[in-house]
């Protein structure tokens, strides 16, 4: 009898974590590494949030809490949805866990039966398909073309729905592309759901506050109130509030679904960290003015990276509307050989050779379901980004 399960054999480790770990190992060896593979802001958690965490420790808030979140945190989350999205939820419709990833995982574990299908537009966040597999479901990936802005069209959505479809995984702005859906595009997708009442929407809104220019963020339950009871909206404090390590995510949806997710969590992690919960209350209820400042910072970095990458031979980089990633095509680099002798026949080969020869760490597009591309996180200083893009351009220019 084998030790490890057949389910585990279908799941692969996270490529983004693997690339970040490799970059860290090389840096520990003394290599000059520029890490652009991790999906987290490079600046610190706001001081008022850190102060709230310290105060919680001093006040003795170090015990177990309710399984899926403190009542006062759930009230703060309800206020956030009302303030930012015009959505009304009761505390019984809110679940809090150790990051947005756990909220997604809990939802899938609570709802999927063998054979149930989950539609996942590609490029996708690397964890989506594997979480579906762990939940016993079948991921159905739908490639989205660069000509469509890497966004799912209503026609492609309609064609992918079957009687076994349970969920659509919807992520806007997107990891890895930064693509964001306009209100009209969300409405067009929602029109498809009205024709298929057995399909639910799992909306991952974690990059909500990172949209640029005059782009207006909208979420499905907000745009289509008639689909409110078929939508689970997931968010958290990791990205906008620079709290990736605090591990607080939350979800809002029908009470029956939230109850099922609570049951899953009660038998896995139980409550998220009590101190992190108090910090999250301050993040959601305290000053919000820094969000606009950070958004402007990321927009400037986006423009810098896009302009520099589009000067590199063989690369073509679209301009994303949000998040802090770009997803350029490397089609013009394929079939060539690097100065170090590496054959560039895939985007994984490109990323590996780039790291080994220049010290720039990024993630290859095959990890996200669409090739030949690379994902670059521009959550780094201007100097680091300029240096990295110059190294990438030099690497591309040296291909023969």
Automatic annotation (TrEMBL):
Class of enzymatic activity (EC top level): transferase
Keyword set, alphabetical order: Aminotransferase, Pyridoxal phosphate, Transferase
Molecular function, one GO term: pyridoxal phosphate binding
EC number of this enzyme: 2.6.1.-
InterPro entries in alphabetical order: Aminotransferase_I/II_large (IPR004839), AspAT/PAT-like (IPR050596), NHTrfase_class1_PyrdxlP-BS (IPR004838), PyrdxlP-dep_Trfase (IPR015424), PyrdxlP-dep_Trfase_major (IPR015421), PyrdxlP-dep_Trfase_small (IPR015422)
Cofactor field: pyridoxal 5'-phosphate
Catalytic activity: L-aspartate + 2-oxoglutarate = oxaloacetate + L-glutamate
All residue ranges annotated as the Aminotransferase class I/classII large domain in the record: 32-392
Protein family membership: Belongs to the class-I pyridoxal-phosphate-dependent aminotransferase family.
Description of how the protein assembles with itself and partners: Homodimer.
Protein name in UniProt: Aminotransferase
Organism of origin: Tranquillimonas rosea
